[in-house]
Write a structure and sequence with these properties.
about 120 residues; alpha+beta; 10-stranded antiparallel β-sheet; 1 helix
């Protein structure tokens, strides 16, 4: 193999690694969510942290912060469960969505059904 071919192959390999790393880093950051609930539009924040290949975070709403131990992420799609304490007890909800740059869309599954949400990254 000549030098030019070897450099071309090395460049392609590095470009592929950089592109896959950029996708994996895309979820980390602070997101402001918009959730249209029966009680009006809510605007919680979601802070996503990356530690190597795993994600965790904090969900901040009017009920205070909730730690998220694990957020699954495959490059564009994410999901995580939350347990929210309300006056009548604890409610488990499940977030599922996709991201594209600094925008996210998805749904929140709760005991009464599903509610759509959108989000915008406010801090990388």
């Amino acid at each position: 193999m000549d030098t030019k071919s070897a450099l071309l192959i090395l460049t392609l390999m590095l470009t592929t690694v950089a592109a896959s790393s950029a996708l994996a880093e895309e979820l980390a950051g602070t997101w402001t969510l918009n959730i249209d609930t029966p009680r009006g539009v809510q605007h919680p924040t979601l802070v996503v942290n990356r530690n190597s290949d795993t994600y965790s975070g904090t969900y901040n709403s009017m009920r205070g912060p909730i730690e998220i131990e694990t957020i699954s992420f495959d490059g564009t799609s994410f999901a995580f469960p939350l347990v929210i304490s309300v006056p009548i007890g604890d409610i488990e909800v499940n977030y599922r969505g996709t991201i594209a740059g600094d925008q996210m869309t998805g749904s929140v599954q709760n005991p009464r059904g599903e509610v759509p949400f959108t989000g915008t990254r406010t801090d990388p």
